[in-house]
Protein: Major facilitator superfamily (MFS) profile domain-containing protein
Organism: Engystomops pustulosus
Amino acid sequence: MEPRTEADILLQRKQKLTHVAIGLLFLLSGIEYAVILPTVWMYLQSLDAQPFFLGLVLSAFSLTELLSGPAFGYWSDRTGKTKNVILLSNCFEIAGNFMYFVGISKWFLLGSRLVAGVGAGAGASIFGYLTQCSTSKERVPMFAMAMACRQAGLLIGPAFNVFLRYCTFQIGPFHVDKFSAPGLFMCILWILMQFVVIFMFRDLPLNPLESPHNEREPLLQQNDTPSPLYGAINCVHDPSTNQDDSSSMENPNASSAFPITNNHVCPEWPKSNGTTKKPLIGLLREEVVVLLTAQFVTFFNQTALETLVTPLAQTYLGFQDLQNSLLYFLCGIEMLIGFLVVRFLSRCCSDRILLVFGLLISNISCIWCLLFLAKPKGSYGFLLAEFVIGVFLQVLGLPFVSVAQVSLFSKLTAEKTQGFNHGVRRSVGGLATILGPLWAAGLTQNLYIMLGTMMGLLLLISVMVILSYKYLVDPAASEEQ
């Protein structure tokens, strides 16, 4: 091994700082969620909002994230300037949280979450960045650590609520209390985050759209043989094309009319000047549709139960803001441990095995909720035990499903359009987080219907994963085998 030069050492340090900045971004997004969610319902009650308004406010954030995600992802793919995307998105987060702090009416509160949701769309660009600077083997550990940072934020967030609930002072015309303080607190943190991104974040040294050879080179191990189409979808030529392997290697632009991906014959993606004109074509394959469906079902069920937890705990257990904060604190600990376990298991388990295990736990969780939470009965201690077990099982399956489907998605879609691809994936999740709270908020008195629908969706995705199990593999790994 050649000794590293000072330039190599400096580059490595800059990459580490960039990863730290990305981790802090995910951490801050988790803190925002955990700080605002436990008190938003009581904030709305203080503004004379009806119960259904809680679903609107929770869905508003996801609506604008759904719309902005693909746009931010496409922008970062075309320019390679992920840093600019993050800086702009943070401005929306700052404005949205300041509006939440002002909170002059329930409609202004709704608008604040709409504005902040635009900033959350930059997550697509960040996931695309992580995909382009990692190999397939590094994908699960890297995504697991990124998501673990967000869960660490969920863990830290309720701790901030412990002292924010005691805030009561005046800033000019604005009164700061336990409901508006989270907005001011997050606004300050996002302003500080701007300076972190400016001084620590570093874009990829080369634009992957302009230099495909240089883009693929760091994504391969030293003993790997680069495939001429690795940067696209790891396709191999159909044998019926009268072109031997040597001619394909000598001419990287040569391709068959019907490339094969994961044993699927799919139309070739049109290319011009090294860019993909129709990235949506690659998102219509069976295995990709299964992963997008898993994304939708997971987020729909998660947000539906999160919407249900606060009113249910208040009605049957008498939980208030402090108890809700402690509940989310414990859930954050469990989720953080779960992501670390996924990171460890990824060394010996494939992505699809982790996905199946997560779906199994989610099915058990939904069955438990149907049996015990749809119509709670018994003493306070019995109700508390039913509630805690249901929440524990729900949180336990999330890390496995989340990391596995994101990792597989990044491996089964085009390398050059990862920002746009993850934007579409997050938009599907955003649609789920819009419908989930609305569905749950409208059926708090009909829990059998609400939980039954969730169970049906879980059974649907479980059957889809079983039928498409053989296709849920890394194309590059299957080629080597």
